């Protein structure tokens, strides 16, 4: 994954070490660690994207639209394009954070996104549950997630974040569930949407991203992910992984099958270790052992000629 030392990937103000974790379907997520070179306020700049900053360690000061806020490991800051902000590091300890930068089109597709589109800036705190979800997302990204799975996890995390924050207002998810129970036609439409998504995933190769699958079934990624989970009891990622592992098992059973590194690439895994982890989680054995178990043995009298 890309790493660097310099300014933040899009915000040319604070010198920082940063590491991009992924950029699937209009959501850039990266880690940053600010380097304390000057405790004074940086130059004020206007954000160009919707941004979520989650504190991880240390502390700093943010000034958003003229109002100063403390950013520490419990902090959650949400801004929108045009918000003017600068940062200062008066505590001498620097700070590390995770940042999500979200394209407007992503929020426009979400029923809860309007609250961001209409908001000029917000700051608050993440509770222990949200903080753990954030750190697990980072850890899993560092271990290796393919673009599809990362996109779905990020959409789910955004939904969880908005439910937690003051931006969420009411429980939009509960409203949808009540509407589904009241209207059988809605439930039928949701089942049809989930079935169509299963068809797309089962009949396509594994290079399609979440946004592409959603486009093919005529839904937003957020709506498709939620409906699929409600109807099937499984996330899109889990279903897709079940399909991938079954395809992998078929290939592992071939006597002259490809090496595991190429197998991982063929089926859309990040790398061989990602392939191994997903296969082991699903069937209890790593691919190398499964290859030994699944490749047909030669009959005793069928020995190659020398």
UniProtKB/TrEMBL annotation:
Record PROSITE patterns: HTH_ARAC_FAMILY_1 (PS00041), HTH_ARAC_FAMILY_2 (PS01124)
Keyword annotations: DNA-binding, Transcription, Transcription regulation
One term of GO molecular function: DNA-binding transcription factor activity
UniProt cross-references to SUPFAM superfamilies, sorted A to Z: Homeodomain-like
Superkingdom of origin organism: Bacteria
PANTHER family in UniProt: HTH-TYPE TRANSCRIPTIONAL ACTIVATOR RHAS-RELATED, TRANSCRIPTIONAL REGULATORY PROTEIN
Identification of the protein by name: AraC-type DNA-binding protein
Organism: Micromonospora rifamycinica
Source taxonomy: Bacteria, Bacillati, Actinomycetota, Actinomycetes, Micromonosporales
């Amino acid at each position: 994954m890309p790493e660097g030392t310099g300014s933040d990937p899009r915000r040319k103000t604070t010198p920082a070490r940063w590491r991009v974790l992924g950029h699937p379907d209009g959501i850039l997520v990266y880690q940053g660690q600010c380097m304390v070179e000057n405790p004074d306020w940086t130059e004020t700049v206007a954000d160009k994207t919707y941004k979520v900053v989650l504190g991880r360690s240390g502390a700093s000061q943010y000034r958003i639209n003229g109002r100063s806020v403390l950013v520490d490991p419990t902090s959650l800051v949400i801004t929108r394009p045009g918000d003017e902000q600068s940062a200062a590091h008066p505590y001498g300890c620097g700070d590390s954070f995770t940042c999500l930068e979200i394209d407007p089109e992503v929020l426009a597709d979400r029923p809860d996104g309007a609250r961001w589109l209409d908001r000029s800036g917000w700051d608050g705190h993440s509770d222990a549950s949200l903080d753990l979800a954030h750190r697990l997302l980072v850890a899993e990204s560092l271990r290796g997630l393919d673009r599809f799975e990362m996109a779905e996890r990020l959409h789910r995390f955004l939904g969880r974040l908005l439910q937690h924050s003051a931006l969420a207002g009411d429980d939009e998810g509960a409203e949808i569930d009540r509407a589904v129970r009241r209207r059988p036609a809605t439930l039928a439409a949701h089942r049809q949407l989930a079935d169509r998504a299963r068809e797309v995933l089962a009949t396509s190769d594994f290079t399609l991203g979440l946004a592409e699958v959603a486009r093919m079934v005529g839904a937003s990624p957020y709506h498709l992910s939620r409906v699929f989970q409600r109807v099937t009891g499984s996330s899109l990622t889990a279903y897709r992984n079940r399909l991938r592992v079954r395809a992998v098992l078929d290939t592992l059973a071939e006597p002259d099958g490809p090496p595991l590194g190429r197998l991982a690439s063929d089926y859309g895994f990040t790398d061989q270790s990602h392939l191994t982890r997903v296969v082991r989680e699903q069937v209890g054995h790593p691919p190398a052992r499964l290859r030994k178990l699944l490749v047909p043995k030669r009959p005793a009298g069928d020995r190659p000629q020398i």
